[in-house]
TrEMBL record, chains A, B, C:
Catalyzes the N-acylation of UDP-3-O-acylglucosamine using 3-hydroxyacyl-ACP as the acyl donor. Is involved in the biosynthesis of lipid A, a phosphorylated glycolipid that anchors the lipopolysaccharide to the outer membrane of the cell. The keyword Cell cycle does not apply. This is UDP-3-O-acylglucosamine N-acyltransferase. Pfam families: GMPPB_C, LpxD. Homotrimer. The keyword Acyltransferase applies.
Length: 358, 358, 358
């Protein structure tokens, strides 16, 4: 349960400065790390801690290394992004510490004879895999996962307990889908078929069948209890390396561009396209049928009702203030047209006055 | 896997113009349809496409049919609502294409001996049906569905994987409940039982038992991971043909009127009554103990804190704009009372000046 | 299925006035109660109903009792908090009426040999309990619950169907966790590891492993489909008697103070600390890394972006109004800086005028 610095550099890159045979057994912050622990400097304001740390080794950027008074007798792995390096090493330690689960299908699982399950996959208790589904190598389906007919799960994916993937969906390689997420549920579409008005109205909402699927690229993570609807005709699309937090709703026929991150409780209505590398804040709402350019940032709690065609940061949320003060401002806002009218009247009155009256 | 126009008209109504023996095997948009496909004209702006389509037949309204230069050699089903007709035909094709699941109870299901399961119902793997529950004809309970004691599921309903219906609830005929939805969880009610203030406060929140149920009418659709709480004393009520999207929260003792639609991420606090034929936009929040009239529309992201007693469209959401611009406006709004005071001072100053000074 | 007033007072406190042998078989409102029912007066405005009620007994405060014209021939339990007392009695009646479930492990459950299950616990169908988990006395795990390795569930807790608790979490005594809730899913944390800009950007989001757990105190209630993420390094903490409604998201490393209540659809981003006895309204959003003082109230739909260091009520939500009126106000708000400029210009013009010109 240890790595030498040489082993880490071999696996994750970076240059070792100091003793490459130094062993580290875990990670810790600079000010707490001991001689067998690996620390990291991600923010230059903690540079002084590097001078005094007891850490066995420190992850540091080339630039920060040059700022040290001395590196004598210390060990470093020099890497342009110590924080990302830390994350990768942390994962490696977790993988060491996590009990391995033997491949195979739990006897309580219900797997259709026509489904294809890779030999290295782990199919947990009470999992259901329907006809024609394809489960890739090293996939892990935890307890009570449901995979609908014909759905494909890419190699190395991990679906946590209770995840439901409807029929006809494709999940890419190395997906992480947290518990309770639902992918491929019907999009919300109904044709009004009513006649008459008011109390005399009769008729019905007629369901629009949703015959598209959901297509998810590689390296996507999806949060707990998040929902992604299947498309009406074509697929809902989630591209490479999109990261989605908990309790997010993505409507039918949305397309989410690669590397975009979406924070918790956000909701995106149907047929909306979000560009690549966007950052959608928590509880943001985005209307249907709009397009967001690449690199758009929408701050938390904001609402987007029209397309945002230019890279930038967009906001429509107010921070909470004292309730009574807020109510006063809100009342004035409701009557802001009256303030405008009073300004107009004043402008007219001032203009009507003789300019010089001497 | 085909229908003649005559068969469709027999099943769904409408008048055939042209060759009633024409067969169609699927649906397609006007500009893509081939000679064995059925297209539809829902929006008159695409009328020109009807003149050039290669579709085997077109669904069209009587009014639009009269606008065509010629209908010679073409086939139509004439119906007042081509879009709804399209939806019904699409569903018929899906029903043809979807593998039939044999009625019966999966051996891994746990069904209490006192529950009543109709012979035509399909009870999937690992389903639990508790004592006294009643499962109607042609009901389909997918994997891991839970039906609490005494709960009734109306004929023709389909509950997707992992749906949980607590005890003592009633679901009407032909319900569609998507994966992960929870119906009948306890309403959020606690009696404060504290003494003292500040750091000296002691006591407890005492749970108010929730002994009502949830009563859901026929033809209701409920989205994935949506939650509907049971009532405190009386039932929470969802009337006929209400359509609810994903991740919606409906509090205890709400009553949602017939034909109302509620988009994703909306939340409705307890004891609120929403009229018939309302449209509640995505991420709308509605306070508890208020009443919305029939035909009220609340636009996405808005908040309703008081009753809305008149039919109309209601809004309180801002669209996101450039972050820096927004912050400037928000700061001025926070101080809008100072703008008002400056206007007042100006009005006083202007009024104090002699009106005519010649 | 009845209690005498003496039995109730023995169990829940309070002083009996009148016939302590009076039996009650259920609860009812003052104006509907019959001679074998128990009513309660929580709001003095209904005092007149106490004079005329047919109830077998009434729960009343000492103060309200003195306001009655006469208590002759009537029965009371006098208690400082009749509403909380009512809640406790109601629960006692429910406990009487609810079928007892025999302790034991359902044959379809998957319990690891190294897990510890108290003899009085009820483990339902298809439950999974992983290695090293500890399930306390009288715990009830309903169908399809998942308990990850090493997780501890405190005595007397009830987890409803489909609840998922990841590995390494601790749930306190007497917890109520409603269906579909997910506790211990990974916090949302990724280190950016990109180089280049715009279309030339390459790289990846590197997952920050989440190695903390979730630690939940006693007497906590958690709503349906709510999600609580595990911490990155240290635990996410929910203190004693916190009550959380449905569809709430709590990010990694949050700390929620004792007795705080959080209404439905609220979202709290990571590393935020909320004080004790706070009330967080429905659909409130709270940013990450902020601190709320004890006794803070945030009204429904508001957003909190900065720490709130003083007890008080905070708001940033507008109530929905007529759509056209709102749009006018919103347009003026967007241009409120122009109103301010016009006021400035007026002030300058008025100031430039001679004050007295006679």
């Amino acid at each position: 349960m240890a790595f030498t610095l040489e082993e880490l550099a071999g696996r994750f890159g970076g240059d070792v400065v100091g003793n490459s045979a130094q062993r580290v057994v875990s990670l810790a912050p600079l000010d707490q790390a001991g001689p067998q622990q690996l620390a990291f400097l991600a923010n230059p304001k903690y540079l002084a801690q590097v001078e005094t740390t007891r850490a066995g080794a420190v992850l540091i950027s080339p630039d920060d290394l040059t700022k040290l008074a001395s590196s004598d007798g210390r060990n470093f792995i020099v890497t342009p992004n110590p924080y990302a390096y830390f994350a990768r090493v942390a994962q490696a330690f977790i993988d060491l510490a996590t009990p391995k689960v033997a491949p195979g299908v739990h006897p309580s699982a219900n797997v259709d004879a026509s489904a294809s399950i890779a030999a290295s996959a782990v199919i947990g208790p009470n999992v259901t895999v329907e006809a024609g589904a394809v489960i890739g190598e090293h996939v892990r389906l935890d307890a009570n996962v449901f995979i609908g007919r014909g759905t494909q799960i890419g190699a190395g994916s991990h679906l946590y307990p209770g995840v439901v993937i409807y029929h006809g969906c494709r999940i890419g390689e190395r997906a992480i889908v947290h518990a309770g997420a639902v992918i491929g549920s019907d999009g919300f579409g109904f044709a009004p078929d009513f006649t008459g008005e008011g109390d005399a109205r009769t008729g019905d909402w007629v369901k629009i069948p949703q015959v598209g699927g959901v297509s998810i690229g590689p390296d996507v993570e999806i949060g707990a209890n998040t929902t992604i609807d299947r498309g009406a005709m074509a697929d809902t699309i989630i591209e490479t390396c999109v990261k989605i937090d908990n309790l997010v709703q993505i409507g039918h026929n949305c397309k989410i561009g690669a590397y975009t991150v979406i924070a918790g409780c956000a909701g995106i209505a149907g047929s909306t396209t979000i560009g690549k590398h966007c950052m959608i804040g928590g509880a943001v709402g985005i209307a249907g049928h709009v397009t967001l350019a690449d690199y758009v940032i929408v701050t938390a709690k904001s609402g987007v009702s029209k397309s945002l065609t230019k890279r930038g940061v967009y906001t429509s949320a107010f921070p909470a203030v004292d309730h009574a003060d807020w109510n006063k401002s809100a009342a004035l806002l409701r009557n802001i047209d009256k303030l405008r009218d009073r300004i107009r009247a004043l402008e007219a009155a001032v203009a009507a006055k003789p300019q010089g009256d001497a």
